[in-house]
Amino acid sequence: MTTTDIQNISNDYEKLMDHQFNLLQDMINLSDYVIYQEYQDLQLLKTGRKLLNKMIEINKLNIELIDNFPEEEEVKFIIKQYQNYQLDPIYKIEEEIKNLEVILEDIEEVSENYNNVDEDFLIDTMDTIVMIATYNLRDYENTLKDTFGIM
């Protein structure tokens, strides 16, 4: 679902929450794949790109939810996740999106120049993907449990 699609259903809370649920499940599955599967370097980079794109999409969806449904219990939970920061939740989410986009650019650069890329940069990029996947499994499984009462 594109940003435009999300904006088109922004007045339909249930559809947005269903979409968020599906994105979170996809993200967990991709994170699980990164950590537990045997892979080649290029496969890890490809999966890492998919993972970061999902994370960016989730963050954009969270902004849409906060903008349109701030009083809903699940949205209050999203907002609460950002209250430890001294920033507006939407600003913090936008900052996360920018950081994810920078990492995504690194992954794309390594993927495109795989045979000529500095080995330390390749290893750092792959380690970053694994670190993000590990964090996701720990944090987002708890989010699903807390938000949707499952897992």
Annotate the secondary structure layout.
Elements: H1 3-8, H2 13-36, H3 41-68, H4 73-81, H5 89-112, H6 119-148
Helix pairs in contact: 2-3, 2-6, 3-5, 3-6, 5-6
Descriptive keywords:
mainly alpha; 6 helices
Q: How would you describe this protein?
A:
- The chain has 151 residues and is an all-alpha fold.
- It has one domain (3-148).
- It is built from six helices and no strands.
- It has helices spanning 3-8, 13-36, 41-68, 73-81, 89-112, 119-148.
- Helix 2 crosses helix 6 (119-148) and helix 5 packs antiparallel against helix 6.
- The radius of gyration is 16 Å and the shape is elongated.
- The model has no long low-confidence stretch (mean pLDDT 87).
The average pLDDT is 87
In helices, the fraction of residues equals over 70%
Computed CA radius of gyration, to the nearest angstrom: 16 Å
- What is the domain total for the residues? 1
Proportion of strand residues: under 5%
Number of DSSP-assigned strands: 0
Protein structure class: mainly alpha
List segments where confidence is low: pLDDT < 50 over at least 5 consecutive residues: none
Q: What is the N-to-C succession of helices and strands?
A: HHHHHH
Main beta-sheet strand count, sense and barrel state = none
Shape: elongated
Summed up, the helix count is 6
Distance between the termini: 24 Å
